[in-house]
Amino acid sequence: xxxxxxxVIVIVLLQSSSSVGAAPKPNVILILADDLGYGDLSSxxxxxxxxxxxxxxxxxxxxxxxxxxxxPVCSPTRAALLSGKYQDRVGVPGxxxxxxxxxxxxxxxxxxxxxxxxxxxxxxxAIIGKWxxxxxxxxxxxxxxxxxxxxxxxxxxxxxxxxxxxxxxxMRLNNETIDPTGxxxxxxxxxxxxxxxxxxxxxxxxxxxxxxxxxxxxxIQPPADWLKKVLERExxxxxxxxxxxxxxxxxxxxxGRVMRTLKETGMADNTMIIFSSDNGGQLSAGANNGRLxxxxxxxxxxGLKVPTALVWPGKIKPGSQTAFRAMSxxxxxxxxxxxxxxxxxxxxxxxxxxxLLGKQQPKLRHHLFFxxxxxxxxxxxxxxxxxxxGDWKLLQNNPFEPLxxxxxxxxxxxxxxxxxxxxxxxxxLAAALRxxxxxxxxxxxxxxxxxxxxx
Length: 455
Hints:
By secondary structure, the protein is α/β, with parallel strands linked by helices. 30% of the residues lie in helices and 17% in strands. The chain has two domains: 24-356, 3-Layer(aba) Sandwich (Alkaline Phosphatase, subunit A); 368-440, 2-Layer Sandwich (Arylsulfatase, C-terminal domain). It is built from twelve helices and 18 strands. Strand 8 and strand 9 form a beta hairpin.
């Protein structure tokens, strides 16, 4: 073979290698439901509810049976999700609200959110739907790294059709106040479809879409035709339950529309889809948290464990399931690893990408911590907490009542308090919880770095 022929072959091989290396980075769509109960999907055990589109997502990837929201209420989980840190460390221990006397968080200016880091890898980032991490100008999505915002700034809507909260209009297109017509779920769905069609025009630039629905948060206000369909199908269902079922089924239909648009635009094969909830379902609204105790606002399992699935065509095995424990904040480093970004910050979250790809992965942490600060006479500005280590869980679900200790393997419904029967475990977990609380509130008289991060 001549030298010229060898040279040509080498050039072709190098070009081929370069082409492979230049493969487009995957897009990411993170869909977050609001107050969706662990048992409120048919793929998670619901028998009076039909969720075919979310079920199809779950079946197309990996289903988690032990995925925990960082907190049993909205803002703290969202703060952890977008920062990769425990919510107390970024200034959001409780719910951010309109009125200062009932507001329990302010997103730290020093905190780097996910879209800022993704931008360094060439990603275009958008949030469509509910923000709930600050009303102040400096804490709005565009000021915290998102290139595009089309949604609702506040905590909840007093009406799914007029979109007001305490008489305030928090609907925005980027920094412009807007007054759209229609059910909020339909609006967020349509805006997401519009965004995907727009991104399809520049397929060489990857995107991150954070689609944060308000549904099925209160008020339980499904479109009338969806409620009628449920009442006709589910004989004997209560009206309260029927309304929630209809609101969830309407949400499911919207997610189905988004998934169809993703496929129609030709981007589905190179997109990771993440589906989760910010906390457990609200029992007083008719939610079903399966066989778990309690629901939203609670440190029992029903308030913390949420339905979660991840899909990545050609990478995550369809129909796979895992009991691997992870938390909302672990999605942050997972997405960064997917995008090829190495965070410079001290994170609490850890990537679950090895698990998603079917590889063995050691547990992410020795302890899982949960914390919430809240007002009203029920909490009076104090906190409730929980810590899980192995099969054991220590919690305080009311700041004015004693700690409780449960063995989740033997007692998944958390009925039998074992603190007097397992005093050593009780002392160890209580000490771990104290250390973590101390870390959150580190102040000058504590020598810098003296409080270790959790294992």
